[in-house]
């Protein structure tokens, strides 16, 4: 056969004479030949069209679309044309009844996939006959082209719209589909089948052979397809079809059952209740995997996920992953896919399916060898043997079991083992055995195999200090150093109480309370790996999951605790905090070094990146420390950090401190200053302690006590510092309350050695008639030390006081010139504040500091801090006085000059002593951190200093006490108040007293020189210094009283008068001259300050603003007046301020203070007691008197030298005395000494007798001028005297020795 043509040879056998060639057109053709020719020609054309259709269909095998499996060309005409030449044969394929239509669809798809799969011994392709899939008047169906060889083709028709039913002997309708095959060879294409009557037997044999083989393979596969379609249809979600008995027999006809579980022993269920209805756990377990086949007698079919079963099986273990059995959809759920087989036939896929016929999974369960249903399984109440059978195809077709069968078999075995494990666990729990009474290894196996066990895998990360990273504990590379971490984790798990654990002999951890918790196994590895938790509860998986979640939380908490311990230990050792524990400061972010950035350790790849502060510890303790408003919380915290907490500081975290207590627990602490706001009124420092253990007493008590004590001392220091910023201050009430409550708060902190608030009592001397004035002077004197100051200067609200007649008294009521002004005594007017850092000196109150060496000693003993000194005025019964008087003038009943036996302030002991005076004092010190005893003694000394009215004989101030005892009373008569003043100055100077200074120098002078020396010390030493260096004549100074005492005569008033530059006369009251003989030992006493004329002159100068010649200038005074200015601003009625105003109004000079001094001169030395003299002038006076004393000593030395020369001149060469040694300042002394020498000759003349005038020789002798040295200072005189002495020494060494005549 050619490509486009067909060659036909026609042979005809005709009767003789009738044959005529058809090519001769000129001759008429015979009718028979024409008919034959026409018929052959028509058949040739039809055959050519049939060949073209055959060729078109054959192109399907060469150009099959890979996407659809068939050509998009419609071959309906080709199929219809070839049907005319093909012979028909058919086979009936068994299908399901109308009640199982889903199975029919699956079976149809399986059949089609099998035909197109290429497994048949023929080449098959589907023919596209249009969307309607209809050919001529045939029902819709699928058409396939089958090529057996190069000559024989078949067109297979598989109907899809109609099922033919036939009645059977079982009285059931059996459904079939008739598949028709239309077969044609080349030879068959020339004749229609309806026209061919003589087909050869050879062609029939060839067609039957090919078709029989194809039919056999198709029918054998269809049986398997029938079983598989039934299984797949049953697995479809929400399908309620049912198999008939004949259909199920047909399904099982091609399957064989194979035993996969051989007699597993099922334990008798535990009867927990009296009424037992059976145990449905096994039935429930089976129902999660299997379901009964509807109409399938005792058989079940697999309902689980095939893909999941295969995946779990290929992974090696069913329980190799965490299983959430609370929702069975992931593991044993219904398959809602449209997939029929995970490996082979897929219905909803595009393209040619890869055909593989997997046997259906039908399962038969037997109990004690008898097939059982779910009800039979649920009714098991004793030990029974369970066997499981699985359906497979016959051995000829199936070969080995498929992967799905192996996976399902493994799943069933694992589930049954799980059930048995659960029974074992429940049995042990029911028997109430403890961990040490059971086989732990068997329990562990049961927990790993049981289904209703909630298992959790917990990955761990531990902190590695050397890299400051979190390392995965399951990584082999990070194994080094993790053994200690796991050991620490195990110990932490054993210590926690949320889920109490017991340690099994092998080291495994189990929950102790198995009755309520069930089985809970926590598998902690030794060196590397995650933690595994297995939990089983007899109440079901939900309860087990709760236990597992609890165990998970416990493990996570303890793992966090372990990392916190590691971080805390690292911080405590290195004093550096990790970012994992404490977030870095925003102002100082942690910088990584280059070595850390390029870290190449293998374990670094397993480091976990966590946010900063992830392992921050919980608050173990917190406290709030209130501060005085004067103290800044920020500054207090700064001081606290650098004092108490300095040794605990963390280097790379500001304000963070690490502390390790006695129990080896580590904490870190933070402080937060709070300044107070509208939202939060807290003012102080908040204290937070972070750790994994509760803070112990070392923090809550000891450290808390140290912090409180430090903050209290800081507040004291702040108040003390603030008090020094101003000369005048008002101590606010909060500060007062803080100081008053300090001692109680301090003792509550455990300072039992701290003395309680102490109160001392002192009795005023009986001679004190105005205690308020004493307190005023006391306040001024003690404030000048710069350690004491007034407590408060602000206005006191004392209120108005009504008098006895009901009328209110104002500031002028009750005042008289003798009784003074009355007022309400308020202790705050005289209460003091002591500050160890010293106050600024107030020039209005005190020009210079009155601090003495004894005061400095007291201040050193008192220590640091502040205190409030409350001073109250008491009566003789030690009851506070509220009605007091100031400015009182004593009358006849009080003699301020009377010598009394009790002249001191006497300390009283309240319980034993009785007050005999009219007034007493109560002194109470509210202390902070000071030693109060030195302060009390300091105050006591100042009280002694203020005893201006206390009298004491002057005997102690005189050098020769025995000689002057008899002169004490006459001296009092000559100069009233002199012994008293002397006693006051002498006693208070020894306190010491800043306003009282004593100058004392010794010499060895002649009696005849004492008058001259007295006048020289008075004028040049004292008066010239007081009057600013001016030359003052003693007789011009008002108030100077000079007395001369003699051992044989009564003392008397004298007047020293300098007649000229060389003569000093001593005149008595009768203006008679008195001469001091060499045998006399007189004593000259000069007193200043007791004369009222002096004060009157001073008052006049103050009123007129002038300076009188006889009055000392203001610059000479240390205290000008008693300081009362702070009170004069208080306008409250009956206050001290108003009382002082009344006194000042009527007596402006009532509080003025005066200057006084006592000068005593005798043969043995000079003594001067100065009161209220400016300290600078006191130094000048001391230096000048010292200069006079030095000159006296030098003159005596020169006189002795002259005497030696005069008496021993025959033994050596005569030397002219060096008269330059006599200083200029001692010129008067030398001249007076010469005059006194002349006067000494007349010493035997009575005092009333006039002496004879000096002769010319005497006058001439006195007029000799003595050389002087340059310089008037004592230091300069001494230096030049030393220089002249050295010159004389050199001259003596060079003097020539005279030779004998």
Helix tally equals: 31
User: Main β-sheet: number of strands, strand sense, barrel status?
Assistant: 7 strands, antiparallel
Our Rg estimate from Cα atoms comes to 68 Å
Please identify the oligomeric state.
Answer: single chain
Structural class: alpha+beta
Secondary structure topology:
Blueprint: H1 31-62, H2 76-83, E1 87-95, H3 101-116, E2 123-127, E3 141-147, E4 153-159, E5 164-167, E6 173-184, H4 201-235, H5 245-253, E7 255-266, H6 281-289, E8 290-292, E9 299-302, H7 306-314, E10 362-367, E11 370-371, H8 374-378, E12 384-393, H9 395-398, H10 403-431, H11 440-449, E13 453-458, E14 461-464, E15 469-472, H12 483-495, E16 501-503, E17 509-511, H13 514-517, E18 519-523, E19 531-536, H14 541-574, H15 594-597, E20 607-608, E21 619-626, H16 633-641, E22 656-660, E23 666-674, E24 684-691, H17 697-723, H18 733-748, E25 758-763, H19 771-783, E26 788-790, E27 821-824, E28 832-835, H20 853-862, E29 866-874, E30 883-886, E31 906-908, E32 920-927, H21 932-945, H22 961-964, H23 968-974, H24 978-989, E33 996-1002, H25 1010-1026, E34 1040-1045, E35 1052-1060, E36 1063-1067, E37 1083-1088, H26 1092-1104, H27 1136-1146, E38 1156-1162, E39 1165-1171, H28 1175-1207, H29 1227-1241, H30 1256-1262, H31 1274-1294
Antiparallel strand pairs: 1-6, 2-3, 3-4, 4-6, 5-6, 7-12, 8-9, 9-10, 10-11, 10-12, 13-19, 14-15, 15-20, 16-17, 17-18, 18-19, 21-24, 22-23, 23-24, 25-31, 25-32, 26-28, 27-30, 28-29, 29-32, 33-39, 34-35, 34-37, 35-36, 37-38, 38-39
Helix pairs in contact: 1-2, 3-4, 4-5, 6-10, 7-10, 10-11, 12-14, 17-18, 19-21, 20-21, 25-28
